[in-house]
Automatic annotation (TrEMBL):
SUPFAM superfamilies: Protein kinase-like (PK-like) (SSF56112). Keywords: Transferase. Pfam families: APH. Gene3D superfamilies: 3.90.1200.10. This is Phosphotransferase family enzyme. Residues 114-168 form the Aminoglycoside phosphotransferase domain. It comes from Stackebrandtia endophytica. The lineage of its organism: Bacteria, Bacillati, Actinomycetota, Actinomycetes, Glycomycetales.
Length: 246
């Protein structure tokens, strides 16, 4: 019998590692996600998992990306501008590659979020980014992907990595750059013509939606930590809405 190692860190269904693969629950959204991952592979994007079908237990099989979760890095590494730039650049490559898929007939796990421009990851953040040898080498957990706007993903990445989140351990603007400067770096790395205000206000809207989703998760799972997370998202959204300029 092949050993299975339970992977920690997720808030949805169990995920296990089997050899050099990852196994996870499937659903009506799985074919669309695998089409997306195959699209990335065909475009030469090396940082995404490879879809390898379904196993005998009905779980999807994905290639395992070795490395360390970015969110687990110590602050001097986590808040490096080089990782900020790499994350913005990778998100742009994923969006550009995914754009032809927005018109395909597909079932996604999350709802479509107009204006539809690309397939959004919908959780492109340090806890889903993988670092190896001090470089960004991967992004995981595409099961919540769905069609949406470029700004939807970019603004959430800004929330987590600029950062605007309350839970940003060790971030020091004097050591790691002010938020205004870091947001400018991220926008430049992505290459979009977005104003800082547009990114912040999009992040606030995203957080308000996320708070509602997290409240629902708290009710269905009876997990009190989800209630605390939802409250944090609302506080952060309120602060983001109050920021102007820069």
């Amino acid at each position: 019998m092949v050993d299975e190692e339970v992977l920690t860190g997720g808030n949805m269904e169990p995920v296990v590692k089997v050899g050099d693969t990852v196994r996870r629950v499937t659903g009506p959204w799985t074919p669309a996600v695998h089409d997306l991952l195959r699209r990335f592979e065909s475009m030469g994007i090396t940082e995404t998992p490879r879809a390898q079908g379904i196993d005998e237990q009905g779980r999807e099989v994905l290639s395992f990306i070795p490395g360390r979760v970015m969110a687990d890095l110590p602050p001097p590494s986590l808040w490096r501008h080089s990782l900020l730039r790499s994350a913005g650049g990778l998100l742009r490559r994923l969006h550009d590659a995914s754009a032809p898929l927005v018109s395909m007939e597909a079932t996604w796990r999350q709802e479509v979020n107009p204006p539809v421009e690309v397939i959004c990851h919908n959780d492109f953040a340090p806890y889903n980014l993988i670092v190896g040898d001090d470089e960004l080498v991967g992004v995981i957990d595409f099961d919540m992907a769905s069609p949406g706007s470029r700004l939807r993903d970019l603004s959430y990445l800004a929330y987590r990595l600029v950062p605007y989140a309350e839970d940003a351990p060790g971030y020091d603007p004097e050591r790691h750059g002010t938020r205004d400067r870091r947001l400018a770096v991220l926008i430049e790395a992505y290459g979009g013509d977005y104003s800082p205000d547009a990114v912040r206000q999009a992040a606030a809207l995203r957080l308000e939606d996320l708070a509602v989703f997290t409240d629902d998760r708290a009710e269905t799972t009876s997990r009190s930590d989800f209630i605390a997370h939802a409250a944090m998202y609302r506080r952060d959204a309120e602060r983001l809405r109050s920021v102007r300029g820069g």
